[in-house]
Write a structure and sequence with these properties.
The complex is a heterodimer of chains A (332) and B (274).
Chain A (H helix, E strand, L loop, with lengths): L2 H19 L9 E2 L7 H9 L9 H27 L4 E4 L3 E6 L5 E7 L1 E5 L6 E5 L3 H4 L12 H17 L3 E6 L6 E6 L2 H23 L9 H5 L12 E2 L9 H31 L4 E4 L2 E4 L12 H6 L20
Parallel strand pairs in A: 1-4, 6-7
Antiparallel strand pairs in A: 2-5, 3-4, 5-6, 7-8, 10-11
Chain B lengths: L7 H17 L8 H6 L3 H22 L5 E5 L5 E5 L1 H11 L1 E4 L5 E4 L5 E11 L5 E10 L10 H25 L4 E2 H7 L11 E2 L29 E3 L7 E3 L13 E2 H15 L1
Parallel strand pairs in B: 1-8
Antiparallel strand pairs in B: 1-2, 2-7, 3-5, 4-5, 5-6, 9-10, 10-11
Classes of the chains: A alpha+beta (332), B alpha+beta (274).
Chain lengths: 332, 274
């Protein structure tokens, strides 16, 4: 057998090994804490017929396994780190089941907490470990950042459910990364409480549909539908894409034409202007060829704040910046 | 007209007229030829509409990636490109594609165990207000993309692909890009890193045609200038090409060989020897 053939056999055996350990999905009358979705219809289908979807492929199972391994390793490290930390802490209640009940008394959101940090002289905040793709983790600086991305949003809701279920005002999200893991504190403040309440209310509606054997309306975002496992399988919603705006203002068209005509000259001017001004910085009086140069120093104020204070007063507006890309498509 | 009559009407009418003139430039404003003939600048109006559709078409092509396309070659040498279902999703927002009245998917089974999932639906573009009705989408269990799958996984994948095909058929039809001349695609991608040569090749290129992406299975040629083994480049400026890795050492002597030419020659030689 050639080395390549042996490698192929090992690869196949590896896939079989992963598939053997894969759990079979079964219908469940509650929502998993990790299964928040923007589409309620999808959440109902997740509860009522998860077995209709094919089992996860070995490639994905391998990723899950890596995630489980990293979670176990990081928690083992944390146990040792806790002995020497100030204040010291212990990692307890690993894989503890919890459930949140809805107003009708039904278990609505169910999950398992990765662990709790029992802090000496303090509380027992829950901790959730995530081993997401490095490109996702690098974009997460605060807990609120989780809600900016489709792939991490569910994890945010999951931890909020744990906080509420554990009756703790704060907890931690431990993000695995190639360097030092990132530990994010999470507080059950007003904004997060609203998110959690939204999740619980959604779960309640989902359970109503599960009990009644009905399905909620279709979701109205084609992008969400196209990445849903149920799309085309048992869910065939109408799709409505928001069209590009057709702007017919002749003045705008003329301005765009003029802008395009001046573009190259404008870019050249800006580049030369920058070079000239860099070269002449500090020259208060001078003559160059036919040009007289007169410069003067003026006051400039800037606010120098310590980083923590700056962070405290930094507000991020998700629609505060608007960038435009204007490209002429015809007659280039 | 009495002096008390408000003159504001006249101003409003002007405003309305101006708005109507602007509105008529939009491709989604229903306008008959008679209506257009009644306004002074009908030709201009039509030109504006055509311009908008042309720009939308170019913007659509620009949105797509080479992996979204398959190119075909006709007997007369003309090359066209077909946008696959996965690429249609990228262009749908530009045209404001709406898909509705989708049927339940239907499974058609053959005696040999193979099957076909089909689904139908209608569509509309909110930009052009064009509508297509009862469009069919379908995929078979014998298609290449499900090779190696079986059971529930195969069934589900074919069923989902049938829906994707329906969405694709509607989008292609409403955007008018069922078959795009390769040169048009090339022009739309000018100035970007996307190249037609990176698209997958379909029918019409012959068995000697160089594949796109992966290197061909024939032995590479030796450089005429230095004897080094030449390298394959799928996205050469004029198509797939073999080039010398040491070309900088003999810049004056250009030795690159079109891949199609080399592959054809090598295969013919092999057949002759056999």
């Amino acid at each position: 057998m050639t080395p390549a053939a042996i490698a192929d056999r090992i690869h196949a055996a590896w896939a079989t090994f992963l598939e053997r350990d894969a759990r079979q999905a079964a219908p469940h009358p509650y929502v998993y804490a990790s299964a928040w979705r923007p589409c309620e219809r999808r959440m109902v289908l997740d509860c009522t017929q998860p077995e209709a979807l094919p089992p996860y492929p070995p490639e994905l199972l391998a990723k899950f396994r890596r995630g489980d391994d990293r979670e176990r390793d990081l928690l083992a490290d944390l146990i040792r780190i806790g002995r020497d930390a100030d204040p010291p802490f212990k990692v307890s209640n690993q894989q503890e089941r919890f459930e949140l009940r809805d107003r009708k008394g039904r278990p609505a959101i169910v999950g398992k907490v990765d662990g709790r940090l029992t802090i000496e002289g303090g509380g027992r905040p829950p901790i959730e470990v995530k081993a997401w793709a490095p490109t996702l983790v690098e974009k997460i600086d605060t807990f609120a950042d989780l809600f900016d991305n489709h792939w991490t949003r569910g994890g945010g809701y999951q931890l909020l459910a744990y906080l509420y279920g554990a009756a703790e005002p704060y907890g931690f999200l431990l993000l695995d990364r190639s360097g030092l893991p990132r530990l994010l504190p999470v507080e059950l403040n007003d904004a997060n409480f609203d998110r959690l309440e939204g999740f619980l209310t959604t779960a309640e509606r989902v359970l109503d549909h599960v009990e009644a054997g009905t399905l909620p309306d279709y979701y109205d975002d084609p992008a969400e539908c196209r990445r849903c496992a149920w799309y085309g399988a048992v869910c065939n919603p109408p799709l409505v894409y928001q069209a590009a705006q057709i702007l017919t203002d002749p003045e705008l068209e003329a301005a765009l034409e003029r802008r395009e005509a001046l573009k190259a000259a404008g870019e050249e001017y800006n580049a030369i202007d920058r070079t000239v001004k860099d070269r002449l910085r500090g020259v208060e009086s001078g003559i160059a060829g036919a040009f007289q140069i007169a410069g003067r120093w003026g006051k400039a104020s800037r606010l120098e704040l310590p980083a923590d204070l700056k962070k405290q007063f930094t507000v991020t507006d998700p629609r505060g910046r608007f960038s435009l890309e204007i490209t002429r498509l015809e007659g280039r | 007209m009495s002096p008390d009559d408000p003159v504001i009407d006249a101003i409003d009418q002007d405003g309305e007229a101006a708005e109507t003139a602007l509105a008529r430039r939009r491709p989604d404003t229903p306008t008959t030829l008679d209506e257009l003939a009644a306004v002074g600048d009908a030709i201009k109006m039509i030109d504006r509409r055509v311009q908008i559709i042309r720009t939308l078409r170019l913007a659509s092509l620009k949105e797509t990636h080479p992996e979204d396309w398959i190119t075909y070659k006709a007997r007369d040498g003309g090359e066209t490109a077909y946008l696959q279902d996965c690429g249609c999703e990228r262009i749908s927002p530009l045209w404001g594609i709406e898909i509705f009245h989708t049927s339940d998917p239907k499974k058609i089974e053959s005696a040999d165990g193979s099957f076909f999932w089909t689904i139908s639906g209608s569509g509309r573009s909110s930009v052009t207000h064009l509508t297509v009705e009862n469009v069919e989408g379908g995929r078979a269990s014998t298609d290449d993309f499900v090779k190696g799958l079986s059971g529930a996984e195969l069934d589900l994948k074919v069923k989902k692909a049938a829906r994707a095909n329906l969405d694709g058929n509607i989008a292609r039809s409403l955007a008018g890009i069922n078959s795009v001349p390769v040169e048009e695609l090339r022009a739309a991608w000018a100035g970007t890193s996307k190249k037609v040569e990176q698209c997958r090749r379909g029918r019409g290129y012959g068995k000697d045609a160089a594949p796109r992406g992966a290197a061909p299975t024939v032995d590479p040629p030796a450089c005429k200038a230095c004897g080094a083994e030449m390298k394959y480049k799928a996205d050469g400026k004029d198509g797939p090409v073999y080039f010398c890795p040491d070309w900088k050492k003999h810049k004056d002597e250009y030795t690159a060989i079109p891949a199609d030419e080399w592959i054809g020659k090598t295969r013919k030689a092999a057949e002759g020897a056999a």
